[in-house]
Records
---
Amino acid sequence: MSKPKSTKKPAIFFVAKEREPLFSKKNRGLLKDPLDDNNPITVQVLGICSALAITVQLKPAVVMTLSVIAVMAASNVIVSILRNAIPNRIRIIVQLVVVASMVILVDQVLRAYAYDVSKQLSIFIGLIITNCIVMGRLEAFALGNGVWKSFLDGVGNAAGYGFMLILVAFFRELFGSGKLYGYQVIPDSIYEMGYENNGLMLLSPMALITLGIIIWMQRARNRKLIEKN
Amino acid sequence: MNRDSNAYTFGFAAAMVLVVASVLAFTASSLKDLQSENVRKEKMQNILSTIGIETDREGAEKLFNNYIVEQLALRNDGSVDETVDAFSEIKLAIEVKKDAKTQRFPLYVATVDLATYYIVPLRGSGLWDAIWGYIALDEDRNTIKGAVFDHKGETAGLGAEITQQWFMDRFVGEKIFNKSGDLVGISVSKTNNDPNDTDKDDHEVDAISGATITGDGVSDMIIERLQHYLPYLKATPADLAYNN
């Protein structure tokens, strides 16, 4: 014997499910968590390579962030749409193809409309595909979740990655070249008093140290991130 | 449908490849014009910057037409091949692989405030891939007015530093002929004991730490390319008039 009401099959399948608001608490979490509690760079320690490489100046960091957001959102959505059609045995290859073609698209568009930026990013654009965050989210999230959730997850994680990128680039450009976004912010009078830009900030080791300081500050503020042992 | 069957897997892969290939091909071909326009203007920008004229890409074309008075395609005996357009028809990447006799050597002549400059395009190999650039000679066809370098895939922070202004500035004022008039080019040197490049008669500039092979590539590229221009550079203005 079945219960009287629930056996009645609804005319349209998805109406019957209780509809989740577009920005329910859970969905907002998908966007928000990667910015802090579950940040891909400082907590999961993924995507460090590019975080070190393109944080010398703010501008490339911002462009890299936007590119990664575009690539991750698009490939998460595509893989999520296809998730029931992708043959299990070649799913990694399929993900790779999706990400690679998105990356090439971004590269081609940049080359046509933002040539200087594309020259600066040159190899790093290609490196988006090897960014563990992208493949990681496809495999861990998009393959098992709906389109909208996957989109939010992609945007959230890319934004979390980009947030760290921009933060590191801010300090490196400020102390390394006395500029922000290409504009000089440290006035000449301070240079005349004997201040000098710290050339070491422009080299990769200081990116790692800056990142380390950020991780330290984040954990000091957010104690639940501290590992027990 | 059985999503684990071989047929389905093959079918899916084939369909995916088809779709992806057509999307990418479509994008690439529809953006091609914009992209090659960027490359063309960048080339003008680079040529102009060797003679000290800095411009953005938008203004490059107008200034290029203003300052570059001649674009020559030279034969290796110094004579001019009138049938070839130096700017658009000579692709150095292809040209350098040819025999010196069949190569055409592009040369740009610029006039800025009554001074004449000779701009020689360069192309060679760095550590990983091609490097190229332009070098402008003063009216004496010996002293370097300015240089620009670019690369395809040198290591960021090491070899890629050849594109930095401080490195390119080191070439300014150096001379490509020695006192007895032989072409020696400019060596990127690790041992010249002249870190500020104040000695402009040593035919050497200070190398970049960690970029030895790229630096050697720059030295080789300069001498290799310049030697083909010897007949032109050594010729007196009277000879040139005769050749024309």
Note: Residues 40-221 of chain A form one domain.
---
Amino acid sequence: MSSPVKSPVKPPKEKTQALGGHLIVRAPNWVGDIVMATPVFEAARQSVVNTDSPWTKLSIVIRPHLAAVLEGGGLDVHLAPIPKGTSERDFLASLEADATLLLTTSFGAALRAFRAAIPIRAGASLSGRGMLLTHRLVPPARDGRRVPIPTAHLLRDLAGLVGLLPESIHPLLDISDQAELRAHELLRSVGVSPSEPYVLCCPGAAFGAAKLWPPPRFAEALEAICKPRGWRAVVTGGPGEERLMDAVAAASPCAVSLSAEPRDLASLKELVRGSKLLLVGDSGPRWYAAAYDTPCVSVMGPNFPELTASSLEHCEVVRVEGLDCSPCLQRHCPLDHHACMVELSSASVVDAADRVLSNA
Amino acid sequence: MRMPKWLGDCVMAEPALAALSDWWRSKGFIERMTVVGPAHFLGLWDGRFGSPLTGVNFVPSSDKVGVQSALRRAEVALLFTGSFRSAFEVWRAGVPRRVGWNRDLRGLFLTDTMKPMLERGGAPIVNTQAIPMSSWLGDGKETLPRLGRLGRFPRYAPRPYGSTTIELVTSLGIPVRRTNPRLQASAEVTLKVHERLQAGGIDLKYPYIVLNAGSRPGSAKGWRGWAELADVLQGRWQIVIVGGPGEEEALREFQSGQGDLGKVGARLVLDDPVLDLAELAALCASGNVFVTADAGARHIATAAGAKTVVLFGPTDPRHTADQLEHTKSLAHPVPCGPCHLESCDAKEKRACFEGLSAAQVTERVGQLGV
């Protein structure tokens, strides 16, 4: 009986990592959260420059339409927008990273990093994804439910899992020269000189209708803020918010709308930076204002104020207190009365604007 | 308000405390706010530092009668402490609303609680290449450098103390607008410190570096490179060496270098008497750089506006990782750290500190742009 021919047995490959690794930071999917995460991106950027750091390469993976938020400075060379038509998992796998820091909180993000076989996966243990992460933080809780803490705090703490210690939680945004020029062109196109004092108003919210304050209230507030000071008001917003912008501008004689102009997230940075005041809902541009210390009044409805309770030096958050149904975190008011927004008077917003402007 | 027993924690809690007092004042109830804390730290808020807490009552925690009296009258107790005893004390005193962190079974005695953040999974990666893991494990495998050991069960995540106090106050619906601790010594104290510096040969027209070189004998936070560092730095700057109460003996060892005309800078050792907290703040506000271990004085210096170089030994830098704009850190990860022990019980005594050299500290001082 002949002995079976044995195939040569390969020793199991030892899975070790070279000292000095490639770190992927997966950016959040909301503009505000991305801006809040900028101190983490900056710490990661410095770590690849610093010879003491274990990281030698950094990729900031971000949805392509959001990359403009981070463009214009030192992060440009590290941006890795997910190519259109490519699955995120395949893209992550192609980067051959040693570790990923997930600044998103979805189950899908962790699953994609897991399936991309990235050895170290750090993130918040939320949405039932803890088992997919090798390093994780369980946010504060009460009676088994997550307690809202400032998102900027959570992002900073997550960075510590991969050795990054941001210097502060103050957002940092760069602006390219082109974006600055585009913003000035936008202003001139509606008859506003870039050197002229103006209030910028962003009445929209990508999150949903529940975060929208009625346009007539925005218009009333703009009139009360701008008229006594002789300022102009410029109304802007994202794609699909043109009707809302026009409604505010139509009701306010001092306001002009950028609805007919080509707007983008990069030039919005300069619009915010150059304004005297940002009047905004609970949406991303609020964090642009935080980055540039632009005085800001944010009108908040169905959200937890604790989640955004950072960078409040030049910002006032105005909301209706004492509602039983608030905060509901719903995109559309489930009770149809929308009391958290409808009951919010323009006078309280104007008072808040006076306070932040007097402290500026 | 129950304040923590550590100096650094008291300073880091300043923005939350200030926001709380501002809110209380805006409601017209400032005289009904009482702060209980270590007697020697209450001076941080009594006006000598320009603190906004005027009108607030202060009760030293050593004054048992005063504390009990305050608790009996209290409607709300907000605990910035983490001990079981402090939660039990307010429960026993019958305070109706008791707010604090739910850790170590404290939740049984509190009405409004927040379970702290937890850490799970592997040991976090550290931002250094000083020691590859292979040298710890002895197996020749190279891997990313990690913390030497995990925290004890249930592994509360190391978080900046200041941020956690802000979260606690925010959870009560009170916004905290200023997040940087701020301490400002009075003009009178500043003048007194300047006079002492000038009498000791420090020329205030030129920059000086403050070394917080004192350390209690046997302390795990004691670094043995201070003398060498003082010699290296003295070649380029004026040096002021300070320490806290009880550290006078350690400071006297530095006297030998005083008046050495072969060095560019003067050296002044402030050991008799050592500075109090207000004087330390004044000294830091005027100095260029404050070099220290991860001790309470570090936070005084930061709050006074000084640039700092911080040497981490047995502590986890994440506990104090906020307000690092003007801070350069230096750490040497070891398999036994971070242990957070007051005295080192490892075979290789204080390996975490022994790995830090005066040259590395000098490099960090240079990175601060002085």
Note: Chain B has three domains: 7-117+156-170, 118-155, 187-367.
